[in-house]
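Board notes (copied after class):
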Amino acid sequence: MANRALVVAGALLLVAGGGLAGYGVTRPPATAGMAPDASSMTRAVDQLDSDIKIARAAVQSSAQAIAGVQAVRAGLSADKQTVEDNFKTGALAFHYDDKEVIELGIVQKKDGAIKPFLLQPANGMRSSNAGKPGSYVELMDDHLLVTEVVEVATLDNRDLQTGYVMVSKPLDLAPAFAALDKAHVAGTLDIAGQTRAFGTAAPGAKPEPMALSSVAGGKLVIEAPPTAAAASAPPYTPAGGGIAGFGAILLVVGLVTGKRKGPDAVATRTGLTPAQFGSAQTQLSAAGAVAAGQTPAPLPGASATFSSANLGPGTEIGRWEIIKRLGSGGMADVYLARARGEAGFAKQVAIKVMHPHLARNDRAVEHFLDEARLAAQISHPNVVQIQDLGKIGDDYVIVMDYVDGVDLERVLASARAAQRPVPVDVGLGILARICDGLEAAHRATSADGTPMNLVHRDVKAANVLVSRQGTIKIVDFGIAKAAIQSHMTMAGETKGTPSMMAPEQRVGDQVDVRADVYSVAAVAYEILTGHNVNLDVAALAHLGIENWPHLPLPSTQRAQLPVELDGVIMTALAFDRERRPPSCAALGASFEAVMKRNNLAATDKDIARWVSVELDRLAA
């Protein structure tokens, strides 16, 4: 009976206390602000970071370009009037970004005194770092001033003075602050100790710093509002909680003492004895650890004593026999090998062996393994297929299809040197196949059907193989980006080939499939015009983005090109990714439409005939 009384009393106290605490919690907070929109806040911060990175690349390129003009050195050795005249009508009267502020001057070596010769425009914002070579970001009221200062050796009086070029670009912070305010975010922008508050923080807000990857030491200190419960905290809430807690204790005591529960009860509910239950937990943890490690298993027949240092013709790696070395890259050597099987079966494969010194670098190993893991999920005729991934001794190896042919870059370089343009039909056929392969990669899924969201990130002619049979194969997913990969690219980290990569990739922003669309268009320009492409946004930033891409229209470079290709290629090369085709499938369809309207076609045999001639010329 006593036990029942405890149960009843405990239950009543639990209900009453819970109701009181719940009433307190559900009351409107006395000082509750609107919760921040996390996704909008992230977008606003990323946009500010991106704007700073682009501005830094622009001023750096402009400063270096101006410092390289001979007239600058001559003018800084003369007088202020000479510099001004050169800038108005002389050698410095060239187009520059009208949002940039340019300052030229000299620094006296004796006392470090700064003597500006020119400030253009005259009312432009002036950095406090004149004459001090380096990169700077300063907070000035509602602007960030991004500056690059380059030292210039004067022609005369070198022992007494040195010249400088300073290029600055003011960034209006109002759009960034407006975006943060729209996301209900308040806080402080901190640039090297200079601060600017934005928004109105709620009482009791907790500061949470968010680093800006574009500025060393730069950060946004977000004032996160307190939770609704903490903001209201009525006095009866803890009282109700205490009453409910005491009621819970009485309830448990009554139940436990009313019906004794021993080890057998655990066995009844779980189907295991206590000893078996503990054993099952241990087994589960061990299995989980193995799955998470994802260490490649030794390849069949592999010898633990194998060493990549002594690989050569005739060396056996498991069931593969090395024929010759094909080449070497920054991460691995590639060998042609012969796979042997039953009843005289033999097949040529390519084996990629990671450089031994990189095997101690965990990040490099993950890059290497991700290449195989990601590419293995793509099954398409225009993507090199991965056959195996494993470890032999201490060496990681990838076994893949061997493509008997050549990379597209070598063929294009040879044709360019001999002034032999790629036939238009063959060029468009190759591009359509590249788009097909990349589209398959972009749509690839993992074994459980989860989209991989893969982006190649290094599409260029060197990573496109052309076989003697006329097949086109995309290779090298070593720096591909995917949602399921083991490692993650760090914020602001740039990987790929700068001359071919999309602007957002060049400055370290997040990328999607439209970055690959951009790179395919850059390859298209090279194939169809016969001219090299350099679209490094950092190198060309001084030209601005208004006329991006800074390339002549393709049809002006080669009379045989259909004029409609101008729009296809230049749109895919748009600085703003929102203006580009949404996918490689869309870009490929545009190439195919041009071919159809102009009665052009290219089968594998057509491509094979072209590459065979080029290979013969390369061998000659």
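Comment from the instructor: The chain is about 40% helix and 20% strand. The mean pLDDT is 75.
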